[in-house]
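SAMPLE LOG
Freezer: B-3
Tube label: C17
Construct: single chain, 466 aa
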Amino acid sequence: MERFPHLFSPLQIKRMKLKNRVVVPPMGTNLGNKDGTVSEANLAYLRRRAQGGPGLVITEIVGVHESGLAINTQLGAYDDRFSAGLTRLAATVHAEGAKVAMQLHHAGRESLYMLAKGAAIGPSAIPSLIYGMAPREMTKDDIAEIITSFGAAARRARAAGFDAVEIHGAHGYLLTQFLSALSNRRTDDYGGSLVRRARFVVDCIRSVRAHVGEDFPISLRLSMEEFIKGGYSVTDMQELIPLFVSAGVDMIHASIGTHGSPASITIAPVEYEPGFNAVRARAAKEVTDVPVIAVGRITHPSLADEIIARGDADLVAFGRQFLADPDFLIKAREGRDDAICKCISCNQGCIERLMFGEGNIRCAINPETGQELIYPTAPAVHPRKIWVIGAGPAGLTAAHEAARLGHDVNLYEKEPFAGGQVHYGAAPPHKEVYGEWIGGLTARVKKAGVKMSLACTVTEEMLERQ
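STRUCTURE (predicted):
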């Protein structure tokens, strides 16, 4: 009998047939070329995610207009010069058996890159909660141009071979800025009441639909509530979702919060319960018949299967989990749950590294992520005898990687346990996942054939005897 039958059942959305309900959601990588074109690193990264067996892969943010770029390496779809790379991207995901959607994005005021140049735009000249700088208020001509640009980018996506597009209306970016009374103080047709503030989103949806035709799926990613005092609520979104569906949306991706929300809820740390946001996906399902994607700290297929079985959502997105272990779905289907490396929600490599300008996407517990082009997979040509001194996280990882490549590895630790400081860091409430990670990593090290010696201090005499 199939494990997780709800999660691994197919789903048809207009012309797109998904082999299962698993979604790789958009995650920024900073892997693009400096001119916004698709790089070899982009392709390798997405290929590795698609090899894990998801039904749908949604790209990271793709800019629809030069005024809305979040970073200088952000992928673009606002000109035909991007089309060749985007075509390769779609073909790369298809080659691994998954469908692919392009996420259409405009940052509005939430772009330090554009704010620093004095070129950011927004519904009103109200400073960003994150960066403290204000955008230029958009004119009616600006609004019309951006609406058209969403449609034109969607047309390029379809021409490049994508199976769907997703409009980014979440996390404080331009569409959210129009929806929120905290950032939209306009007095024209695009401001005022909730429905009037939603007009920009509706017009963008209609533009996309006009450019891609009736058979092409359109997803809308929404923050179901802002999670900021004075911001819009789940009830507000329930009022608006039928309008968005009527305008042409075929799927709702039910996220939460903005980058200015407290407690990092948009990229929930370990203190949040797994699947905590599924209740907001259910709120979306209560007001529409189109499929809904649940997202929010989901790390194992068993929970995802439950979410779908109880009717909270139709699809489930695993974001950071696909960074921690791209093969977790395969392992789960084969009953190898103990081999899954669960995301610990530390946000160090996937979020903080990018936020602080330290480079491309990484994962604190998976050395392959973001380095797919150089990550060695073939056995070492000249296997060696290797000593690793210290069985903390770095030592355990180094020992495992060396053994994976065929080296003869000895691992020494002066304490009677592995894990280093993480052994103590796992003790506080909500931090148990760190202990689980170290336990799993230790088990994988032993399974790889590493000879581990605990309570053993390496001395000069030991080294001299080698």
